[in-house]
Amino acid sequence: MNNPASFLILLFLAITFLQSGYDKLFYWKDNLEWLKGHFSKTVLKNFVPLALAKILVLELASGVLAIVGMVQLLMNGDRIYGFYAAFLSCVTLLFLLFGQRLAKDYDGARTIVIYFVPAVLAVYWLN
């Protein structure tokens, strides 16, 4: 493996998105209830279940791709699945950022930026 930093960021993305996806999947009702309140004054108020489902799929796909990317890096040094994971992670985080900004949750949006920086670095390193 040529770039241990890439592996570590993929591990970071896998942990982040698989844990978040797990939480959404197994605590769907609690998440949905909270998000309905969070987005009650936005254009998303009637689409919260659909938006949550889409975010769940994006997070799980990002996490699984990150694991596949780590395995690929270790096995043969290839980076394509890691790149896909990093890119999809960026897209997922942009969706989350959009939602936080729409809800005027600027502290939540700021937190997402913290996750976005290493994801963009991964896109750069794995390209």
UniProtKB/TrEMBL annotation:
<protein>
    <recommendedName>
        <fullName>DoxX family protein</fullName>
    </recommendedName>
</protein>
<feature type="transmembrane region" description="Helical">
    <location>
        <begin position="80"/>
        <end position="102"/>
    </location>
</feature>
<keyword id="KW-1133">Transmembrane helix</keyword>
<feature type="transmembrane region" description="Helical">
    <location>
        <begin position="47"/>
        <end position="68"/>
    </location>
</feature>
<feature type="transmembrane region" description="Helical">
    <location>
        <begin position="108"/>
        <end position="126"/>
    </location>
</feature>
<keyword id="KW-0472">Membrane</keyword>
<keyword id="KW-0812">Transmembrane</keyword>
